[in-house]
Amino acid sequence: MPPNKPGGALGALNSLIRGGARSAARVTRGRSGPSLDLAAGAAGGLLQESFVRRLERLNLMTRGLVSVGIAGEHRSRRHASSAEFSDFRRYVPGDDFRRIDWNAYARLDGVFLKLTEAKVEVPIHLLVDCSESMNWGSPNKLAFARRLAAAIGYLGLAQFDAVSGAGFSDRLYERFPSVRGKNGATRLLAYLDAAPVGPRSNIERCVAEYCEQAARGGIAFLISDLLSDDSWQAGVLQFLRHGTDVVVIHVVSPQELRPPMDGEIELVDSESGDVVELIVGEEARRTYEARATEWCAGVEDYCQRSEVGHLLLETTVELEEIFLNRMRRRRIVK
């Protein structure tokens, strides 16, 4: 299985063959062609009107009924005076007599209250890995992550949910404060575009710090290549301990799964600057690709055993495909 901390296909292949430097993200000379780095891009590029209209017809799903919040679009364990019927219960002294169902009284010869489901908001937490290993690939992983976070955030805002989040690398960036309603989309996009590229990622540490600052509950989307200096699994457990549902979105570039390398090459670690020279042949590529597939399968297996959501996404996948098909199949949206 590839190590937990390669910063892209080149770094992982180097670890596989030589066991040396980590996080190589570009080829500087040899027969592999030019650098694969691209600019990180802007989150706002996703907001074509046709896609936004489709997003607004979707709803984020929670694992159960929501027990906290105020006016929103999700069902709650609380009962209130809304239009959606839930149940009956017998009247007891002190109940609001205006909620007595007189039709039930006529049928059942008893005094009953009509209970309805409250509609509440759900806190949506967006954690976006902005480490140097994410700023790599074609298409660029960080640009993809920013657009994906922006789309998820807009979907939550369209449902009147409370959307907050933070970028992170080796530290947690200043938190994006909770906003509600579609008017908050511009602020969210500006935050995502301004999040700087940092060095190595520390998922466990940054999630722990975020959980200390943020409200409990809701849904957390961890968007990362999972190439962390510490345990990303421990970061997931931090959210679960705070009563927060988790969706792990594992972002990979095509070059990480199928590295286009051959012959004598030089690898440069995108996070440490270390340089390794090696020779790559067909057998090494096949071995690497098998181990990369095994690693991705291991991530999915952990998420299934931990009962958290999971999506493995190559950066070539269109947002429409992600939201309209893949997220629906995984019951992340409906």
Overview of the molecule:
The chain has helices at residues 9-17, 49-55, 102-108, 141-158, 185-194, 203-213, 232-241, 254-257, 282-305, 319-329, and strands at residues 24-30, 74-90, 112-120, 123-129, 162-168, 176-179, 219-224, 245-252, 263-269, 275-280, 309-314. It is of the alpha/beta class and 334 residues long. The protein has 2 domains: 9-64 and 121-329, Rossmann fold (3-Layer(aba) Sandwich), CATH 3.40.50.410; 74-120, no CATH class. The strands form 3 sheets. A 6-stranded mixed sheet has the order 6-5-4-7-8-11, with helices on both faces. Strands 1-9-10 form a 3-stranded antiparallel sheet. Helix 1 (9-17) crosses helix 9, helix 4 (141-158) runs antiparallel to helix 5 (185-194) and helix 6 packs parallel to helix 7. The longest helix is centred in the C-terminal third of the chain and has 24 residues, at 282-305.
Number of helices: 10
Low-confidence parts:
1-40, 64-83
Q: Say which CATH homologous superfamily of the largest domain is assigned.
A: von Willebrand factor, type A domain
**Termini Cα gap:** 34 Å
**Helix-strand makeup class:** alpha/beta
The rounded Rg comes to 24 Å
- The rough form would be described as elongated
Strand percentage, roughly? 25-35%
What helical percentage do the residues reach?
A: 25-40%
Spatial order of the strands in the main sheet?
6-5-4-7-8-11
**CATH topology type of the largest domain:** Rossmann fold
* Biggest beta-sheet profile: 6 strands, mixed
Number of strands: 11
How many domains comprise the coordinates?
A: 2
Mean pLDDT: 78
Order of helices and strands: HEHEHEEHEEHHEHEHEEHEH
| Gross CATH architecture of the largest domain | 3-Layer(aba) Sandwich
| CATH class value of the largest domain | Alpha Beta
